[in-house]
Every structure is written in structure tokens, then in C-alpha cells.
Amino acid sequence: MKLPLLAKSSPASCNSPESLQPLLDAFILRCKAKSLSPGSVRWYKDKLGPFLAFLEGIKITAAKDISPTHIRAYLEHLREEGQCSGTIYRAYTGLGTFFGFLLKEDFITSNPMLLVEKPKRVKRLIQAFSMEQIRALLDQFDHNNFPHLRTRTLTILLLDTGLRISEGLGIKKDDVNLQSNTIRVLGKGGKERDVPFGATAKQAIMQYLMRIGEIPGQELLFINRFGGGVNRRTIQRQLQLYAGKAGIKGVRPSPHTLRHTFATQYILNGGDAFSLQRILGHSTLDMVRVYVDMANSNVALQHKKFSPMDRLGPVSGIGRKVAIK
Questions:
Q1: List of E strands, 109-190
Q2: Which of 51-65, 131-145, 160-174, 306-320 is predicted least confidently?
Q3: 82: burial class by Cβ within 10 Å (0-12, 13-18, 19+)?
Q4: Which residue from 36, 128, 188, 229 has the fewest beta carbons nearer than 10 Å?
Q5: Which burial class, exposed, middle or buried, applies to 171 when counting CB atoms under 10 A from its CB (0-12, 13-18, 19+)?
Q6: What is the CATH topology of the domain spanning 11-115?
Q7: Which sequence spans correspond to the domains of the chain?
Q8: Is domain 131-308 given the CATH code 1.10.443.10 in the classification?
Q9: What span, in angstroms and rounded, lies between the C-alpha atoms of 208 and 149?
Q10: Which residues are paired to 229 by β-bridges?
Q11: End-to-end distance of the chain based on CA atoms, in angstroms?
Q12: Whole-angstrom Cα distance, residue 165 to residue 39?
């Protein structure tokens, strides 16, 4: 393993030219040492890499020279690029963790993030698939085509369990218990949990397992046509393609939308927030409350569509103007 080129943990080591990239390398090494998931490590790289490039563009190459003004300028740069409030907020949180690391490791003597105002995050209800859209999406898969069969099986599983795409692609065949209808999942922070699945998902998994058979040396459940692991971008592209063929509009076709759809439907079908929290692997109920709001919004739309009185038609006395006395 190539170690970050840092002389020692001191502010002086940050003053040399081009010292910021080694600091990011050291931070990423710390993330890996904490056993963060590959997805989390990649997330930090994606959030911090553009920040270092921005600093390089304004000739900032030493950590001690980064001021709150530089950080505010970067966040404003993201706004000018048209990034949404959620993206800017996540960039802020990623920078906060990074600078906290630099301070703790004595690469800086004070944390500039403490003076940077937290960006306002506009909360939006996440659009989920309707059941009609799900049916149309699943109809696009060709059962005789292996990549189609694999992605269809994964799609059904994500819709029935709410797994993250990283969790789904990380499932090993031995993690699947067809007797108890549960999957042992390794979630964020290395936490394991057992996630249940239903009869439809079980049938899809069994059909898929019969198709792939035994592949020596391969433990993963979902594989590519050459017997290797599957890239999440491959699944993303396929969902976009099939959703387009299905004529689905107004919803972002992504693995995460499948997770949102599961959570919303779970609440709509009578599930409770606490069991949903355990299934999804959330440490708090904050995100679950968003799904409850989504379900409530869906209920309002359903009422508008199926209102008994509206479907009854004109009612005598309703159409005329009434003066309140």
C-alpha cells in the first residue's frame, strides 16, 4: 500500500507546495482504517476532490492558508454551477469531517469550518414509483437474457426489502436463507442486520440461482456474465434504459428510488415506522419520518382520485352560491 507522503503530524508539514492531496490521502486512509464501506470512502473522495481542485485554481496549496472565506466561496461556486441544496449541504458535511480530521491530527491549528454557516437544506418529498410504473418496468426485462434476469431479480429484491444498492450487490449466496426468507446484510458502519423478503422475491431469487448454478471461487449472489461482481453504474444505466422503454416519466429511475418506493409502500400497506427503521438500517427515525410524509402525501392523492363524494357526481344544492349568515 502506498502511504501518504507526510513528514509528520504537524502544521509545518502542511506548508509545503502541493501538500493538500497527501492530506486527503491521509484522510482516506483513516476512513479505511475505521472500516468505512467502499461506498462511504468513495463518497468522501467525490466530495473532497472537487474542493481541492477549487483551491488549486485559486492558488491555495497549504492547509494553514484555507480560510472560512475560501470555504464559503467554494459553496457559492457549487450554487453557481446549479447544484441543488442537498448537494451543497452534503459537501458542507464532508468538509466538516475532513477539517475535523486535520485539526485532530495537528495538521491545522484551528478549524475554519467552525465559522462557516451551515447551508440551508430545502427538504423535498422524494418521488417514488407507483405500482403501475413498477409493473411496467418489470415487463421490460427479457427472462431469457442473463443480464436482464439478474437486474430484474435485483430490482424485485430492492423493491421488497429496501436494501441500498451497495448492500444488494454485496450479498453473498450464503447470506440468503430460503427457509426463513431473510438475508444477512452488511450495512453502513459494518453493522449487520437480517432483512426479510416475501414470496415473490423468494421465487425470483430461486429462479436466478437455478440459472447461475455454482461458480467456483465466486461467493457473490449477483454477478456479471463473466462470473465477476457487478458495478452499481451498470444497474443504474439499465434501470434508466428500461424505465425509458416503459414510458416512465416524472420519477428518477435509480436503485435509490427503489428503496424509497419500498419504504413508502411499506407504510401505505400498514407497516409501522419502528420495524421500517430496522429493515432499512437507519440509526434514527429521522429518515423514516420522510417516508411517512411521502405515504401521507400519497394517501391525499389517492383520496383525490377515489373520493366517494367526488365520484358521486353533482349533488343538489352544492353548485349554487351560499351566503354565510
A1: 176-177, 182-186
A2: 306-320
A3: exposed
A4: 229
A5: buried
A6: DNA polymerase; domain 1 (1.10.150)
A7: 11-115, 131-308
A8: yes
A9: 7
A10: 223
A11: 83
A12: 10
The rounded distance, in Å, linking the Cα atoms of 92 and 115 is 12
Three-state DSSP at 182 gives strand
Query: E strands within the chain?
Result: 176-177, 182-186, 192-196
- C-alpha distances (whole Å) from 107 to each of 2, 41, 63, 69, 248 are 20, 21, 7, 19, 50
Question: Which phi and psi angles does 66 have, rounded to 5°?
Answer: -75, 120
Q: Are 6 and 26 in contact (CB under 8 A)?
A: yes
**Number of Cα atoms under 13 Å in the Cβ half of residue 238:** 21
- Write down the pTM of the prediction: 0.65
**How many residues would you count in the chain?**
325
Phi/psi of residue 199, each to 5°?
Answer: -65, -40
Q: What is the pLDDT of residues 128-178, one digit of tens each?
A: 899 999 999 999 998 889 999 999 999 999 999 999 998 999 999 999 999
* Amino acid (one-letter) located at 23: L
Helix (H) or strand (E) holding 170: none
